[in-house]
Amino acid sequence: ATLEAAEAFWDAHRPPVPEPVADLGVTALEAFDTLRANDAIAYGVKAANLGELHQILPAEHRVEGFGIPLSAYARFIDESGLGARIETLLADPRMTSDAAYAAAALDDLREAIEDAPFPADLLDQIAAAMRVTFGAAAETQRTKFRSSTNAEDLDVISGAGLYDSKSGCLADDLDADSAGPSLCLTEAERAFKEAEIAARRAELAAHPERTWLADIIDDFEGDLTKEKPVARAVKKVWAS
Questions:
Q1: What is the pLDDT of residue 32?
Q2: Pairing of β 143-145 and β 166-168
């Protein structure tokens, strides 16, 4: 098929996606036990749906957690000065016509987001919510941070797999240094990851064409040697 024919086909079959809406006036972190579907415009659809599930599921099947509002991301982007950069990329026609250019530009943007300063008061809010939600274990157990946006889990587009989930260790934020390994790394996890590294290296040696294994090995090695602060985890999710 020609590009023109393909584009005509895509245009004819593309579902109408509503303009995303966001309530950026909400700034509080909200627990799953009080989040509801109507809160999606402030906390994203995934968090709102988890709130609905929390209401109807038996206690033994609930996942405890809280939602970080969309306003926190918007504020971070504004204070970091990255908003103008994002607008420039969105207006750049090469972003939709040159895949290699777009990939490189987005890699650079993700790195900039991950390297930007994290608001200290937001980290304090998150730490307080973690202590309320998870109790005494909040600082030394890794907590999973996941995307919840107004561009996924919609009626016309699921967005499944679009974003990354990352784990953070609050103790790594509070120890006043950046030296690893993570204070949440247990001996059982260390043994598991060391075994995984050995298995992946053996697989890569036997199948050098499986180049993606190198990234997996790097991730596992990072888990054994690096800190995993909450602030970094949240920024990585935002960057994704």
A1: 96
A2: antiparallel
Instruction: Tokens for 18, please give them.
Output: 């509503």
pLDDT at 34: 96
Separation between Cα atoms, residue 167 and residue 237, nearest integer Å: 10
Residue 206 three-state SS: helix
Diameter of the chain measured on Cα atoms: 61
State which amino acid sits at residue 58.
Answer: P
With beta carbons less than 8 A apart as the criterion, state whether 66 and 30 touch. yes
Q: What is the pTM of this model?
A: 0.88
Task: For residues 85 and 92, give the distance between their C-alpha atoms in angstroms, rounded to a whole number.
Answer: 11
**How far does the chain reach from its first CA to its final CA, in angstroms?**
33
| Tens-digit pLDDT profile for residues 210-226 | 999 999 999 899 999 99
